[in-house]
C-alpha cells in the first residue's frame, strides 16, 4: 500500500504509540494483510480502510467471515460480495478474517461455529479467541468506535457470527448472518444483542426449514442437520425477550420481504430478510460462484445490513 505523507505531528503521535510501525502502516486508506499467533496457529486477516477515514474520529468496524471452504480474499472480492465497495461508500472499516485451513495459503478454510464445520469444528479451533485477538490489534492501530462494532458472515461465517453474538455480546453491537443459521451448542449472551438473518427460501445448502441440503459439503461428516431459519429466529426472540407477537413486515417487494420482531429488551432489534430465489448466495452479489444459482437481486445484503446496523440505538 502506497502511503501519503502525514503531518509531522501525526507521525510523532503514531511513533509514540504501542505498535507504532503497524499503526503508521495502517493509518492511511487501503488494504493491508496481517498475521498473528493464536492457539498455536498462525492466523491471518485483511484490513480495508476507506478513503474517508479520519484518525481523529471514531470509526465503525465490521468484521466479515467467509463461507466454509472459502478464504478472506474471496470475501473481500467486490465481484463476489461488494463489502469493500460498501465500506468506501459508507465509511466503515472492514476486516476480513481467514478461517482455519490445513493448507499453507489458507484456502479451503472453515470456522468453529459450534456444530459446524469440518476441521475447525473437529479440532475445536479457538475462533472466538482469534476474533478477540484481531480486535485488540485493530483497535491498537485505528480509531475504532467501540459502540459500533459489528459482525457478518456467509454460510459457515454467518454461523460464526451467531456464535460471536452468543459469546461476545459485550463487544458486538449487532450481527448480520447471511445463509448461515444458529448452530451453537450453548448460548448465554452477556446482554441482549441485535441480530439480522438474511436467507433464501430455496437455499440448497443450509435449508430454510432445517437440515443440510444436496449442495452442502460432499463429505457429510463435515456438516450437521443445520438449524432451521424459523428456529434460529425463535431462539433469538427468547434470548432478547422480544414480545410474544408475530413479527411485522417492514419491507415487501417482488422476490423478497423483511420482518421485524417487536418489544425486545433494551431496544435491540431482531429482523429476518428472506429472498424467494438465489439459493446459497449473498443477495445483491454481482457474480455467481461456479455452478451456483445467481444471487437474488431483490435486495442487497450489504444495504440491508448497513441500514440495520445504522438504525440500532446508541
The general outline is: globular
Order of helices and strands: HHEEEHHEHHEHEEHEEEH
Give a quick account of the main beta sheet: strands, pairing sense, barrel closure: 10 strands, mixed
Class from secondary-structure proportions: alpha/beta
- Mean pLDDT comes to 90
- The CATH superfamily appears as Alpha/Beta hydrolase fold, catalytic domain
Number of strands: 10
Distance between the termini: 34 Å
As a percent range, the share of helical residues equals 25-40%
Number of domains: 1
- Strand percentage lies at 15-25%
Radius of gyration: 19 Å
Summarize the SSE layout with pairings.
Blueprint: H1 8-15, H2 20-26, E1 30-38, E2 41-49, E3 59-65, H3 72-75, H4 83-90, E4 93-97, H5 118-122, H6 127-141, E5 144-154, H7 156-167, E6 174-178, E7 194-200, H8 229-239, E8 248-253, E9 256-261, E10 270-275, H9 301-310
Parallel strand pairs: 3-4, 3-5, 5-6, 6-7, 7-10
Antiparallel strand pairs: 1-2, 2-4, 8-9, 9-10
How would you characterize the overall build of this protein?
It is a single chain. The chain is α/β, with parallel strands linked by helices and 314 residues long. The protein has one domain: Alpha/Beta hydrolase fold, catalytic domain (Rossmann fold, 3-Layer(aba) Sandwich), CATH 3.40.50.1820. It has nine helices and ten strands. It has helices at residues 8-15, 20-26, 72-75, 83-90, 118-122, 127-141, 156-167, 229-239, 301-310; strands spanning 30-38, 41-49, 59-65, 93-97, 144-154, 174-178, 194-200, 248-253, 256-261, 270-275. Strands 1-2-4-3-5-6-7-10-9-8 form a ten-stranded mixed β-sheet, sandwiched between helices. The longest helix is centred in the middle third of the chain and has 15 residues, at 127-141. The protein is globular and about 45 Å long.
Amino acid at each position: 500500500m502506497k502511503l501519503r505523507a502525514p503531518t509531522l505531528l501525526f507521525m510523532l503521535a503514531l511513533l509514540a504509540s504501542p505498535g507504532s510501525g503497524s499503526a503508521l502502516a495502517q493509518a492511511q486508506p487501503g488494504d493491508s494483510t496481517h498475521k498473528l499467533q493464536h492457539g498455536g496457529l498462525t492466523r491471518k486477516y485483511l484490513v480495508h480502510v476507506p478513503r474517508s477515514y479520519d484518525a481523529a474520529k471514531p470509526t465503525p468496524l465490521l468484521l466479515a467471515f467467509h463461507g466454509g471452504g472459502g478464504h478472506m480474499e474471496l470475501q473481500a472480492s467486490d465481484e463476489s460480495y461488494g463489502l469493500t465497495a460498501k465500506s468506501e461508500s459508507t465509511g466503515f472499516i472492514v476486516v476480513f478474517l481467514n478461517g482455519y485451513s490445513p493448507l499453507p495459503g489458507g484456502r479451503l478454510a472453515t470456522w468453529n461455529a459450534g456444530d459446524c464445520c469440518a476441521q475447525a469444528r473437529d479440532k475445536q479451533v479457538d475462533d472466538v479467541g482469534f476474533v478477540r485477538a484481531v480486535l485488540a490489534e485493530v483497535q491498537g492501530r485505528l480509531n475504532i468506535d467501540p459502540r459500533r462494532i459489528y459482525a457478518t458472515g456467509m454460510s459457515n461465517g454467518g454461523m460464526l457470527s451467531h456464535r460471536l453474538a452468543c459469546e461476545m455480546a459485550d463487544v458486538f453491537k449487532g450481527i448480520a448472518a447471511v445463509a448461515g443459521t444458529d448452530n451453537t451448542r450453548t448460548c448465554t449472551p452477556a446482554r441482549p444483542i441485535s441480530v439480522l438473518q438474511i436467507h433464501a427460501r430455496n437455499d440448497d445448502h443450509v435449508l430454510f426449514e432445517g437440515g443440510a441440503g444436496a449442495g452442502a459439503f460432499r463429505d457429510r461428516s463435515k456438516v450437521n442437520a443445520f438449524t432451521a431459519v424459523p428456529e434460529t429466529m425463535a431462539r433469538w426472540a427468547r434470548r432478547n425477550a422480544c414480545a410474544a407477537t408475530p413479527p411485522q413486515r417492514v419491507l415487501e417487494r417482488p422476490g423478497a420481504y423483511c420482518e421485524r420482531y417487536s418489544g425486545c429488551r433494551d431496544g435491540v432489534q431482531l429482523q429476518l430478510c428472506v429472498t424467494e430465489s438465489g439459493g446459497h448466495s449473498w443477495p445483491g452479489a454481482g457474480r455467481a460462484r461456479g455452478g451456483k444459482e445467481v444471487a437474488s437481486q431483490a435486495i442487497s445484503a450489504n444495504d440491508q445490513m448497513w441500514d440495520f446496523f445504522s438504525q440500532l440505538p446508541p
